[in-house]
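Input (Citrate synthase):
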Amino acid sequence: MKDKATLEYQGKKFEFPVVEGTEKELAIDIKKLRSTTGMITLDPGYKNTGSCESAITYLDGEKGILRYRGYNIEELAEKADFLEVAYLLIFGELPNKEQLHKFHEDIKHESHVDEEMKKILDAFPKSAHPMGVLSSLTSALIAFNPSSVNITSEKDMYHAIIRIMAKFPVLVAWTMRKQKGLPLDYGDDNLGYVENLHKMMFKRPNKEYVKNKIVIDALDQLLILHADHEQNCSTSTVRITGSSHAGLFVSLSAGISALWGPLHGGANQAVLEMLEAIAADGGDTQKYMNKAKDKNDPFRLMGFGHRVYKNFDPRAKIIKRAADEVLGDLGIEDPILSIAKGLEKVALEDPYFVDRKLYPNVDFYSGIIYRALGIPTEMFTVMFAMGRLPGWIAQWREMRLRGEPIGRPRQVYIGENQRPFVPLNKR
Ligand code: CMC
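Output:
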């Protein structure tokens, strides 16, 4: 017999099934809570709420484990490329050579973006934040691909997925080129997926594009490390938007908006701006540590802390090592890296951070690598979105294939009770 959890309230007992995941995580299934007890649960920020069952990503915040479809992130970051990882996340298995080839060929075939999209991009001021531009362009894509809205078969779903995997890198590149005042560039079908992204972003109008393996490998690894992270803020946004059967592209656009915030993906930009501010202020890390600990100061140490990781973030460990290697290989000496390391050292020994289990997260060192690769600070969160694309797609696909109901939380109302309307002249 399956385990049950008992809830006792006002002398009555109610039983609820206990669900066990493949990694032995236990959850109380409260689907029938309201219909049997008349009560709901209250959990702001969903700190204790599982919104779905998912077979995509496993993470154990206490042990610092992150796995995509059962494969450790460390192994994937070292041995796979981003396109393989995207296929793995979306379809559940690592592709064989034929499957990977077909996936890539299908993507290449769809990589054009309608010329009229350029007019939409043109309408933005150069100063517009790239995340706002990216979110708008992703939404605008629907107008040019209307058949990707109403997904009624797995074939439609595959097409929508291929289309966005193909067109998103073009939008990412165009977003950056617009900001830099560079002519918009199209990709080159002879290049790998990440290499093509890099070429579209950086090709100068009057120069031939030359591949730099160190740069492409670093970018590939960063994209893999960001590719999925189970039910975080933006992914939950994608799933909840898609749960109304809004199309894939708008669901992604909503996810991009959610990612933008500095408590989520926007932290990578905020980290670099913080490190630059510390450098400009004479490099006094202790001063900023004190600010972060002061409850009367809204300042937080950006790139530190995580809702789930309470020991270490495995992605941060890989990125820290990569930052050293990439800067070394490219022959770059960045004083910001030593400030980051100094800040980390002080924080890891400080009781405030130790007691609250606050460790560097994925965003703490990623910006230093992006900077070394020549990516402007405001584009950092766009790069996060590029990496997270396959994870969002996989989560949206899973949600649709499982036929999940529309997401619609309840609330505990704490406002006024019923009262009579007062006419304007009597208020
Ligand atoms: N600096 C100073 N204090 C902090 C920090 C920080 N970065 N993070 C958490 N705390 C304190 C917080 O004030 C609270 O203290 P107390 O218990 O005394 O009230 C305690 O630690 C717990 O924090 P919380 O806000 O309840 O934790 P949370 O799970 O709601 O928030 C977080 C997690 C990531 C939003 C938060 O740690 C934070 O704001 N970090 C900085 C922003 C950041 O780096 N975000 C990137 C997250 S990783 C990438 C991604 O998934 O997007």
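Strands lie at 4-9, 12-20, 26-28, 57-60, 65-68, 71-72.
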